Amino acid sequence: MKEVFLHYVWKFQLFDTAQLRTIDNETIQIKKIGVHNTDSGPDFTHAHIYINNTLWVGDIEIHIRASDWFLHKHEQNPAYNSVILHIVYEHDTNITNFNGNTIPAAVLPIRQETLQKINLIEHMPPGNICFENLSQINGIYKSAWFDRLVIERFERKSEEIIARYYNQNNSWEDTLYLTLAHNFGIKTNALAFEELAQSTPRNIIMKHANNLFQLEALLFGQAHLFPEKEPDAYSQKLMNEYSFLQKKYNLTPISRELWKFSRMRPPNFPTIRIAQFASILYSHQQLCSTILDCTHTTDCKRIFTTQLHSYWDKHFRFSQDSPFQVKTLGESTINTLLINTVVPFLFAYGTSTKQDILTHRALQFLEELPSENNTIISSWNKANIQCKNAFRSQALLELSNNYCTKRKCLQCAFGHKIMKHTTENQLK
């Protein structure tokens, strides 16, 4: 048993109120359970309870064992003098406050079915309690929680982007440049890509935005990915150009060791991704304005339709020939970039500038885009929770990563529904 469960049981009165008595067998009648306090101090404040028909107004403190009061040194803290009732799961000692007064205590008479559900939540693998009960929850209730999960997810992502905006001297173009770079590295090379962008400021990029060759020279040089020996003709030209630009701007490349090639499909190699990134910067020099003007995902997808230098048609890495293949971003990769870059950026920009039309457009884009396909979404599909679009899949990713995995069932609307109701009919 964890204390957080006792807080939940008290808050929603999932116990036999008629059997609630003090250790001295005094009757307790609850008028107000109090306000749940998640900061320091007693757990519930401003409670109203009757003990043997006498009204007490004050705070409630909750512990697994009564002796936890002393373990936490509450008897030394005058802030706990306002406690009028000590709720416990096990009573192993009487307690006193800072003034030496004994505080009434009561063992919480938790219902058996509630205890069983608490045990399930504590011991089931993450997500399983939802998998086994979601089919019994009303569809409207589920949809409302999925909506809230998406908002939570993009509010958090928005905060991260707005913080980056302030760090970039209030430049939305620079903010988008860094955000796109991070997501261009997918998960494997996200950190390396972001460091590459940070080491190659956008103001320098913009001075050469009209020349794709110079953009490649800057980015590949700063990425430290030129061949260390026997460069071919194109590689050598890029190296020569970078040598000049490095001295001109006093640039320092990032570590070559940051880049990961192993266990990656060649189209995802950092070399190809950097060439595609350079092509986007070349084709859309005011990328922020371009994205803000997009009204549908089809408009956004055109941004990521790249055309690389012909050298890359026969290479995945410098100086290593490969069969002819035009290197374009695949449909799923473009969708991922829209979900992880364009949508959160629009949401952040709309939030920061108080343009609701942009935050609504961001959510509209999620409804237009197909669901991601990964192990988390597959697990929900097996539980008969189908994803028809990215709006639903983003909700399920938020649910899995920030509720199920962290076992925050009691803060989850589904977990609350499952805990609060005891029969299948009540779950509907």
- Major sheet: 6 strands, mixed
**How much of the polypeptide forms β-strand, as a percent range?**
5-15%
Radius of gyration: 29 Å
Number of strands: 8
How far apart lie the N and C ends? 28 Å
Q: What is the helix content? A: 40-55%
Number of helices: 19
Shape: elongated
SS class: alpha/beta
Brief synopsis:
By secondary structure, this protein is of the alpha/beta class.
Folded structure, characterized:
Among the domains are: 108 residues, no CATH class; 162 residues, no CATH class. The C terminus is likely disordered. 35% of the residues are buried. The chain contains 19 helices and eight strands. The chain is 50% helix and 10% strand. The longest helix is centred in the middle third of the chain and has 29 residues. The strands form two sheets. Strands 1, 2, 3, 4, 5 and 6 form a six-stranded mixed sheet that branches. Strands 7-8 form a two-stranded antiparallel sheet. The chain is elongated and about 90 Å long.
Please name the defining characteristics of this protein:
428 residues, alpha/beta, two-stranded antiparallel sheet, 19 helices, 10% strand, elongated
Write the layout of secondary structure elements.
Elements: H1 3-11, E1 28-32, E2 35-36, E3 44-51, E4 54-65, H2 68-71, E5 83-90, E6 105-107, H3 112-123, H4 128-133, H5 139-167, H6 172-184, H7 190-199, H8 202-207, H9 212-223, H10 233-249, H11 270-283, H12 287-292, H13 297-303, E7 315-317, E8 320-321, H14 331-352, H15 356-368, H16 375-382, H17 390-404, H18 413-420, H19 424-427
Parallel strand pairs: 4-5, 5-6
Antiparallel strand pairs: 1-3, 2-3, 3-4, 7-8
Helix pairs in contact: 5-6, 5-14, 5-17, 6-7, 6-14, 9-10, 9-11, 14-15, 15-17
